[in-house]
Amino acid sequence: MSESVQCPKCKSTQISAQKRGFSGGKAVAGAIVTGGVGVLAGFHGSSNIDVYCLSCGTKWNPAKRATQEKQVLMAKKAAHESSWKKNFYKAYENGNQERATEIVTSESPHLIRNGDLDGAYRHLKNNDKVTTIIQIIFLILIVLFFGWLVSKCS
Hints:
mainly alpha, flat, three-stranded antiparallel β-sheet
């Protein structure tokens, strides 16, 4: 069973796809900025495809739209994981073993082997610590890079 392509705005299946082609505006801008060779800028993005809704006129790029949808899905997944972990930590730390077991069993059953709730808690906390450390290191590297870049430009 195949899924038909729909307009993201009106959900119509009356759509048309077109290849972008040469852009005169980009060519003129490129020629002004760089001279004659800048005319080649008109070909930038010419292989991209745009999809148009014939019912409401909405235009979209399917590749960009897929990327955006994937980012939204990943953000929802991260928010869900953060939420259940928070609830698990709260239940475990308040001594509600039954609720903590219920949460970790429903969300990540591989973590609780042989009823080892303490091990699941330690594992999740350690992963959170490692993630935080990696984020801090990454942030430090970005700051150092920009500091180096500023010193080179001065």
